Amino acid sequence: MMTADGRHRARRGEGDRLRGEILAAAEQLLIETADESAVSIRAIADRVGVTPPSIYRHFADKEALLRAVCREVFIRLDDTLEKAATGATNPFDELLRKGQAYIQFGLAHPENYRILFMLKQTHKAPPDGVADTDLPGSNAFLHLQDTIQRVIELGGPDAPKPDAYTMTCSVWTAVHGITSLRIAMPDFPWPSIDEQLEMVTAPWRQAICPNEHRQPTARRARQRAK
Amino acid sequence: MMTADGRHRARRGEGDRLRGEILAAAEQLLIETADESAVSIRAIADRVGVTPPSIYRHFADKEALLRAVCREVFIRLDDTLEKAATGATNPFDELLRKGQAYIQFGLAHPENYRILFMLKQTHKAPPDGVADTDLPGSNAFLHLQDTIQRVIELGGPDAPKPDAYTMTCSVWTAVHGITSLRIAMPDFPWPSIDEQLEMVTAPWRQAICPNEHRQPTARRARQRAK
DNA sequence: TGTACATCAGTGAACGCGCGTTCACTGATGTAC
DNA sequence: TGTACATCAGTGAACGCGCGTTCACTGATGTAC
């Protein structure tokens, strides 16, 4: 028997092939249509070239499928942030790079970002019996907390020592604010992202690294790169 | 002829009565069900005690209805912020109060907040021929910009003088981040809102009012209130 | 004051649609003899 | 090497559902004479 569009069906051991194609198609649809409601079981099946019921051989229901998509996107987000961090010259620089990468990731894949952080958390609920810490989303968070811990330790003995966890939440919250508001209101006359990041971080830089001179972000980054 | 649930229908001049009831029902449904998809023409009509087609005598289509709901919510948000500002002892205090009120407003009416700032901007597009500045949403923004202008002027001659518009966007973005991430992920172990606000504003307070002593927000507020 | 009439707010039935999901099935693939 | 058989990935048809919207209508309200 052939698949609807002429592909041969998966062999015995290849059950995961279609599974992967389904996930890829779901993500593709999210990106292309930029419309969560366009991502239906039927549309996904269509895109893969398969009939809707065959989805159910790989996912219990739509909910489980979306949960799997979230998992993929979380992993990709974490990867992106970690890659962005390599090559940083110091923890503060690393934090800045991660922030920029986070925003760029969200703006480049707005509907993916949307299902992670702008919808009800249903899709993100762990399947029964899986601890929160096993979720790929928390990896990105823990990695960020790492960076921030090092930023805090960077400060001189007189610098304020905020709680790393609270500060991680605040940083996340800040970049999420920039990202999600732009996704929701792309037509608003936003200032440039660099301006916004500079405005948010400038006094922090001052407070945490009080012995450095205040300079525009971009200039500092360029100087460090030398 | 009587309405479906026994109310008398509106008299000639009272066309706006049902209109108002429809808007109220739509908002009620958003709040109660906390589920945008539960707000259908049919559900709204049911709630009002009227048949679905009668909605169309008051709104061209569902889109127009949601636009009207947004308008109402924007007005209420602006009111809430302005009320929160009265009684502030200085511009910085005013800004803080507005920030707190904004977050509380969002958390108290999460689905209302959601349709304003977490969905695609379709509902918020002005009807043809209406300038952006006529939208009630921009009132709240302009009022906030006012406050921030005064905060900036509060700083001594040596304090940094950031651009008021950019800074307004940043403040909005910051409180939106706190609000929307909590709405999307209510089960995350967030720090307290006060902690988060303090963490975001502390270095700013330092930078803008460098001649004041740094103190925890709450303590300062209490002292001022005396 | 009484009557004929126009208005128009709201009705009731129906439309076509796309959705998630189910069910019994088919037939290519792999395996045992 | 050839054949009978079990497996199970994917099919095709159908389900019931709630949705937004349309249409011709009804009958209470207000008005003109």
Tell me what you see in this structure.
The structure is a homodimer of 226-residue chains. In chain A, α1 crosses α2, α3 crosses α5 (110-117) and α4 (91-108) runs antiparallel to α6. The radius of gyration of chain A is 21 Å and the shape is elongated. Chain A is mostly helical. Helices cover 63% and strands 0% of the residues of chain A. Chain A has two domains: 1-59, Arc Repressor Mutant, subunit A (Orthogonal Bundle), CATH 1.10.10.60; 70-225, Orthogonal Bundle (Tetracycline Repressor, domain 2). The first copy, chain A, binds a DNA duplex (33 and 33 nucleotides) through residues 1-4, 8-12, 14-15, 18, 40-42, 50-54, 56-57, 61-62.
What is shown here, in short?
The structure is a homodimer of 226-residue chains. By secondary structure, the first copy, chain A, is an all-alpha fold.
Topology of helices and strands:
The structure is a homodimer of 226-residue chains.
Chain A: H1 15-33, H2 41-48, H3 62-85, H4 91-108, H5 110-117, H6 136-154, H7 164-184, H8 193-208, H9 217-225
Helix pairs in contact in A: 1-2, 1-3, 3-4, 3-5, 3-6, 4-5, 4-6, 4-7, 4-8, 6-7
The structure holds a DNA duplex (33 and 33 nucleotides).
Label this structure with key terms.
homodimer, 226 residues, mainly alpha, Arc Repressor Mutant, subunit A, Tetracycline Repressor, domain 2, 2 domains, 9 helices, 63% helix, disordered C terminus, DNA-binding
At the fourth CATH level, what is the homologous superfamily of the largest domain in chain A? Answer: Tetracycline Repressor, domain 2
Count of helical segments of chain A? 9
Largest sheet of chain A: none
Distance between the termini of chain A: 62 Å
Helix content of chain A: 55-70%
Greatest interface by residues involved: A-B, 39 and 39 residues
Q: Give the percentage of residues in beta strands of chain A.
A: under 5%
Number of domains of chain A: 2
CATH class of the largest domain in chain A: Mainly Alpha
At CATH level 2, the architecture of the largest domain in chain A is Orthogonal Bundle
Uncertain segments of chain A of ≥5 residues (pLDDT<50)? 213-226
Shape of chain A: elongated
Radius of gyration of chain A, CA atoms, in whole angstroms:
21 Å
